[in-house]
Amino acid sequence: MLFPDYRPRRLREKPNFRKMIQENRLFVDDLILPLFAVEGKGIKKPIDTMPGHFHFSCDMMVKIVKEAHSLGIPAVMIFGLPDKKDPLGTQAYAPDGIVQKCVETIKESVPDIAVLTDVCLCQYTDHGHCGVVEKGCIDNDASLDLLARTALSHARAGADMVAPSDMMDGRVGEIRQALDENDFSNIPIMSYAVKYASAFYGPFRSAVASSPQFGDRKTYQMDPANALEAIREANMDIEEGADIIMVKPALSYLDIIHTLRNEIDMPMAAYNVSGEYAMIKAGELMGWIDATKVVMETLLSIKRAGADMILTYSAIEAAKELNK
Ligand code: PBG
């Protein structure tokens, strides 16, 4: 098909034609809104590194969850900031921990929105690592039981789905077993299966004070140079019982999302992380970009790459735009 027989512009001429030939589309149903929970009452404190996002006490979180629900957003993901941190991250699996309490409150007030929980230890450990530290190293196997206990406590609090983000080997299997043995075989696991050691998590770590106090996360999170390893990681978690596979971050890893779409037949999520959000916000604050348009183009690109759902701090803004 060569010019002048074929003219691609013919089908771009009229807005209706453009709609008719559109290959990919973003829906409100694709969006998951991450939220940050803190202890206390009446708290809604802006997060400096993530303009437009807040630390919410459980009572105050209800309002934004209601708004998300009324916009048609199907799910939220709860992250917790405990008051106390310790070497074993005990607040992560405390029955009255911050995530557990918020899940209960939200499920009572907005029962129809799906509540997902981030399962990890880094916000709860004083050393800031996602697992237990033994002699200066992150002890994989010693961390598994604590992660499984965390996931189970979230399920007991009423979480609709648990999402382990720690990147310890074998944790999906351990969590699946703990859930199954306690009558939660119906609770799905969204695994942060393909999580890279990324500088794009910077604004999040400052928001939840979870930066590692020594070293970095390179002994458990993936090397950004690796693509084949993503297939192994995804398959491993699927074998262990993951119901949804996540790739994180999203934008520098669209090739990985695309590759996995062709390699695996499980639902796939992508995490449009804090650094990706903060860069767009910064551009907006400087008056350099039309942030809403950039957000919509970004989210669409993640869909086009092959993600079925997107965790994004822009979920409310995007949903409003899609509902127009
Ligand atoms: C905890 C966790 C992190 C993020 C989600 N869960 C940070 C990290 O691994 O250091 C990052 C989210 C974001 O940047 O938006 N393990």
The chain-level mean pLDDT equals 97
Helix content: 25-40%
Q: How does the major sheet shape up?
A: 10 strands, mixed
So, CATH architecture?
A: Alpha-Beta Barrel
Determine the number of helices (DSSP H or I, runs of at least 4 residues). Answer: 11
User: Which percent band covers the strand fraction?
Assistant: 15-25%
Low-pLDDT stretches: none
Structural class: alpha/beta
Q: How many β-strand runs?
A: 12
User: C-alpha Rg, in Å?
Assistant: 20 Å
Description:
- 39% of the residues lie in helices and 18% in strands.
- It is built from 11 helices and 12 strands.
- Strands 1, 2, 3, 4, 5, 8, 9, 10, 11 and 12 form a 10-stranded mixed sheet that branches.
- The longest helix has 18 residues, at 140-157.
- The protein has helices at residues 15-20, 58-71, 98-109, 140-157, 171-181, 202-208, 228-240, 254-263, 274-285, 291-305, 315-322; strands at 31-38, 44-46, 54-57, 75-81, 114-119, 132-134, 137-139, 161-164, 190-195, 244-248, 268-272, 309-312.
- It is globular.
- The chain has 324 residues and is α/β, with parallel strands linked by helices.
- The chain has one domain: TIM Barrel, CATH 3.20.20.70.
- The relative contact order is 0.13.
- Ligand PBG binds next to helix 6.
